Amino acid sequence: MKAAYFMQNGAPEVMQYGELPDPVAGSGQVLIEIHAASVNAADWKTRVGYRQLTTTFPFIPGRDFSGVIKALGPDVNDLAVGDEVFGVTEQTGARSYAELIAINAAIVSKKPKAISHIEAAAVGLIGLTATIAIENTLQLKSGETILIQGGAGGVASFAVQLSKHIGAHVISTTSAINKEYVLSLGADEVIDYNQQDFTTVVSNCDAAFDTVGRNVAIRTLKVLRPGGRAAFIDGAAPKSERSDIQALKPNVERKRVHLDHIAKLITSGAVRVPEIKIYSLTEAAAAHRVSEGRHFRGKLVFKIR
Ligand SMILES: NC(=O)c1ccc[n+]([C@@H]2O[C@H](COP(=O)([O-])OP(=O)(O)OC[C@H]3O[C@@H](n4cnc5c(N)ncnc54)[C@H](OP(=O)(O)O)[C@@H]3O)[C@@H](O)[C@H]2O)c1
Predict the structure, then answer these.
(1) Which atom of ligand 1 is nearest to the CA of 298?
(2) How far does the centroid of ligand 1 lie from the alpha carbon of residue 112, in Å?
(3) Sequence ranges of the chain with CATH classification 3.90.180.10
(4) What is the pLDDT of residues 223-267, one digit of tens each?
């Protein structure tokens, strides 16, 4: 199969494109012909070596995929050859920048017919992260106010829409160029973080979801009311000096039921697929450079077939 991979950790230039051995579906696995895969920040963090996943080379990055089942391994009874499916690789793994993937059938789901493979590949990890953070970790309720940091990004674009769907009042931070986009996702208030310090204009929130991290994370805690809770996905949750709030780290587990939920949110119109820019697998280095810059909108997707 053709794949994008690297033979050592390093700058985007270490990305190569070429022929690697085909995977084989083991017990409980399906072999999928991948039509599209998307870029997540985890991919370039792995390439750089921030994450300890890269113990053997060649290493194929990539978590999100959408495609068609080509073969079933032993003991797979609930999916069939020809099914259109999408999913996200295990928390400990990657390998979707490729024409084929063998993966546990229990963590793939049927792709909604209403969306393309490109769109399905865009929503897996961002949807899992947003739904688990907003619904399970923060347990956001109708009528509550939430601050979502980085509204134009992949996870946050899903989270803004989901929070509105739940019935919350949504405040989100973004740069000026993405203000209209984040409002179009349903945010009630948008703060241009280059013009205003959010800690001076936002307070008393029931919840906060920080997708930006670094120096933003510790300041996010300041906007919470007593009893408020915040979730963090860029690194660990910061240590809080306040004992009256919760700083939480979502566990973004892979299960078919979560993917089915994402599919329903999209087909019902509650959440729309974020803006997408399409690349070919031969352009993996270029796509990583854009992702690493951390100022693009929506998702970057590889069209593989
Ligand atoms: N723990 C997990 O399981 C998990 C899962 C998914 C993602 N993550 C992590 O979560 C983070 C977000 O992921 P993602 O894919 O959503 O990121 P992303 O799409 O790469 O985020 C890019 C966005 O961040 C915005 N941004 C950058 N600096 C900002 C700032 N200071 N304030 C507000 N917005 C800012 C940019 O908007 P502007 O251009 O307008 O600045 C851009 O749209 C990454 O670090 C990723 O590794 C963790």
Answers:
(1) 19
(2) 26
(3) 2-123+275-303
(4) 999 999 999 999 999 998 899 999 999 999 999 999 999 999 999
